[in-house]
Amino acid sequence: MFFRKPSPSQPQKPQPFATKSQSLSKLKETHITTINLSIKSTVFASFFIASCFLFLHFRHQKTTTTTSTTTTVTCNGSTPFYIYNLPPRFNLDLLNNCENLNIYMNMCPHVTNNGLGQPLSKPAWYATHQFLAEMIFHARLENHVCRTWDPNQAILFYIPFYGGLYSSSVFRQNNHALRDSLAVDLIDHIKKQPWFNRNNGRDHFITLGRTAWDFMRTETGHDFGANILLNLPPVKNMSVLTVERQPWKGKNQNGIPYPSYFHPKTKTEMLTWQEKVRQNDRPFLFSFIGGKRKGLGKAKIRDELVKQCNESTRCELVECGVGNSKCHQPMEVIGVMMKSRFCLQAPGDSFTRRSTFDAVVAGCIPVFFSPHTAYTQYAWYFPAERSKYSVYIEEGGVGKKRNLIEEVLMGISGEEVEKMREVVIGLIPRVSYWHPNGSDVGCFDAVDVALRGLAKVVRDNIGKN
């Protein structure tokens, strides 16, 4: 069941770097009080709150009433959307077999709380699985202020298919017809809907919690278990939201953030967290949290990152692998990133990684080694000028000089680091998925940003025809 509402109703100055010989707590808490706020932080918070009030004022200026709900015409800069009431076999019924939704683990603990997973000890924090954006997105839209129950009022049409969960449950299915069956059935069902035929699906969208590669099986090449959902002609007319788009063939695909662990319900929770990461001590220049990969060309960079981080007294390394449980403990991961000024983001099994968004939530400046880890993926979410919030180091040159990464990062002035970190902290609301029961009184989260982007896509696509 989905959550329901009770009514329809500048960053601190650089500190000396720590070395690994120093004893540092992994989860050092920084207690923030109003009296200790810096002038810069206070101004930022005031601006943030004032912006939200202005946003609310304009959002509620003009409304249109339907038979079931009141839909905001402007919808915070987005547009009214309609959610298809799909047969439950396409979404909720899949959860009845949650222990078999992933060939590597039991997903039952992860699909609880509408995909947020198990609550952690801190309010607003959950042990969220990286591949459950489709569930979280669905739950957020169920209660969203822009939802309309009248398709005549809708500009966007949402298809709540849990394609990622289905795909992962049949990765080892050798019979391609069976592997593709639910996806094919879904499109057959949607094609029969009058609203799909109105614009040939160009105003429809689907959200997938896994990478686009998992839905674009080719006739040649290694068959790792993908199905053909995104190859189906009707789907190519739709907009596809996915945590990783195919950079070369994903014209109708738009990247959305991997879900991190922070899901606030109120502006206060968001502002408090932003201030915490702003004030937190960052004794390490950079950190890397990840494991090595075998036999993957794009992941060879990881060996070099582990090596350079291990050899540097200014780097904190959490090497993931058998026996290291820290990589699977959300607050351990966030704790390391909160002590770091820069967080290394190397490709792994695919170009992107959830760690990028964990780093942003922790106020840590991401360092990329492939443009496809972020720059070609999340245009709706990150600044177009990549140097404002991140560092890019060409992968091919990383191993040519000892501690090159350290030298590059040490070459960035403290003033520039402060500016970049402030941009990163400002990105936290837009890359976070707010709790489905979160107050409507808030600023854009990842779902709101996507709706605004989709509205533009639909206007452009339909306007051309």
UniProtKB/TrEMBL annotation:
<protein>
    <recommendedName>
        <fullName>Exostosin GT47 domain-containing protein</fullName>
    </recommendedName>
</protein>
<comment type="similarity">
    <text>Belongs to the glycosyltransferase 47 family.</text>
</comment>
<keyword id="KW-0808">Transferase</keyword>
<feature type="domain" description="Exostosin GT47">
    <location>
        <begin position="81"/>
        <end position="404"/>
    </location>
</feature>
<dbReference type="GO" id="GO:0033940">
    <property type="term" value="F:glucuronoarabinoxylan endo-1,4-beta-xylanase activity"/>
</dbReference>
<dbReference type="InterPro" id="IPR004263">
    <property type="entry name" value="Exostosin"/>
</dbReference>
<dbReference type="GO" id="GO:0000139">
    <property type="term" value="C:Golgi membrane"/>
</dbReference>
<dbReference type="InterPro" id="IPR040911">
    <property type="entry name" value="Exostosin_GT47"/>
</dbReference>
<dbReference type="Pfam" id="PF03016">
    <property type="entry name" value="Exostosin_GT47"/>
</dbReference>
<keyword id="KW-0812">Transmembrane</keyword>
<feature type="region of interest" description="Disordered">
    <location>
        <begin position="1"/>
        <end position="20"/>
    </location>
</feature>
<keyword id="KW-0328">Glycosyltransferase</keyword>
<keyword id="KW-0735">Signal-anchor</keyword>
<dbReference type="GO" id="GO:0045492">
    <property type="term" value="P:xylan biosynthetic process"/>
</dbReference>
<keyword id="KW-0333">Golgi apparatus</keyword>
<dbReference type="GO" id="GO:0016757">
    <property type="term" value="F:glycosyltransferase activity"/>
</dbReference>
